[in-house]
Specification:
The structure holds two protein chains of two kinds. By secondary structure, chain A is of the alpha+beta class. Chain A has a single domain, classed as Heat Shock Protein 90, CATH 3.30.565. Chain A is 34% helix and 28% strand. Chain A has five helices and five strands. In chain A, helix 2 packs antiparallel against helix 5. The longest helix of chain A has 21 residues. Chain B is α/β, with parallel strands linked by helices. Chain B has one domain: HprK N-terminal domain-like (Udp-n-acetylmuramoylalanyl-d-glutamate--2,6- Diaminopimelate Ligase, Chain: A, domain 1, 3-Layer(aba) Sandwich). Chain B has a five-stranded mixed beta sheet, sandwiched between helices. In chain B, strand 4, helix 5 and strand 5 form a beta-alpha-beta unit. The chains are: A alpha+beta, B alpha/beta. The interface between A and B is medium-sized, with 25 and 21 residues.
Chain lengths: 145, 118
């Protein structure tokens, strides 16, 4: 069932690197917004997983980042850009199980090498661009049925 | 399998208050993991999460994944912040003294399947 929104909605969240206590807050707020708009539960679940993984990557690897969302009748587009170390080999990073996370991150339950594959799996369109020493930008689009 | 049955099978301690609605909740699968991305990748909605990690981001992971109940193994209990977060998100928390392997084995033997699907 298509959702009924009067006008396009957009907004953004600031994400602070290393802030594990509030990790997931941006994704939770976006999930709540989609729920209020009456978006299909499965679409909400996919969006929340994709954004949560992106949010965690900023928290784990970057100094700071921003998540921007844009909701239309057709779907939701999400752009996450960070001031992080960048990814040397995107092809390798997209492989399930490949991770450069340090041990302390793994001990917290992250760094399984599933983050980027998980974002791709839950998006209809997934784009990643990264410059070593500058940062990473991820763009995702999820269609509304 | 109801949450009430799961509590009995695991001889679990209840951390968050449970009413009849939670105790009679129908749980159809379970996922045992300490890697949160694995939980996000392999879970099915309304499954049970069995884990040894107790930090707040485990509660957030459950919320994002639509998981309503978490069992902490080896008698572990989360801090007050995580408990309050779970209560706010309506996620039930249990703790069992069993290890992850035994807790998972008991539930599987009792008929609760794993949630792995791709």
């Amino acid at each position: 069932m298509p959702i009924n929104i009067d006008k396009e909605i957009e907004g953004s969240f600031q994400i602070i690197g290393g802030n594990f206590v509030n990790a997931g807050e941006a994704s939770t707020q976006l999930k709540l917004l989609l729920s209020k708009l009456g978006v299909d539960e499965e679409i909400i679940r996919r969006t929340a997983i994709a954004t949560f993984e992106a949010e965690m990557n900023v928290i784990i690897y970057a100094a700071a980042g921003r998540m921007h969302y844009h909701i239309t009748q057709q779907g939701i587009s999400i752009k996450v850009d960070d001031m992080g170390p960048g990814i040397e080999d995107i092809g390798l990073a997209m492989q399930e199980g490949y991770s450069t996370a340090p041990d302390w991150v793994r001990e917290m339950g992250w760094g399984a090498g599933m983050g980027l594959p998980n974002m791709k799996k839950n998006s209809d369109i997934f784009k990643i661009d990264s410059v070593v020493g500058e940062g990473t930008t991820i763009e995702m689009f999820i269609n509304f049925p | 399998m109801t949450l009430k049955e799961i509590i009995e099978i695991l001889d679990a301690t209840v951390i968050t208050p449970l009413g009849d609605e939670e105790l009679n909740m129908d749980i159809r699968s379970a996922c045992s993991a300490d890697l949160m991305s694995a939980v996000l990748y392999y879970h099915t909605p309304n499954s049970l999460l069995i884990t040894g990690l107790t930090q707040a981001h485990v509660i957030r992971t459950a919320e994002i994944a639509g998981i309503k109940t978490i069992v902490f193994v080896l008698g572990k209990k989360p801090d007050i912040y995580s408990i309050e977060l779970a209560e706010e998100k309506k996620i039930s928390l249990l703790s069992t003294s069993l290890c992850m392997y035994t807790a998972s084995g008991r539930l599987f033997q009792a008929g609760l399947p794993g949630c792995l699907y791709k």
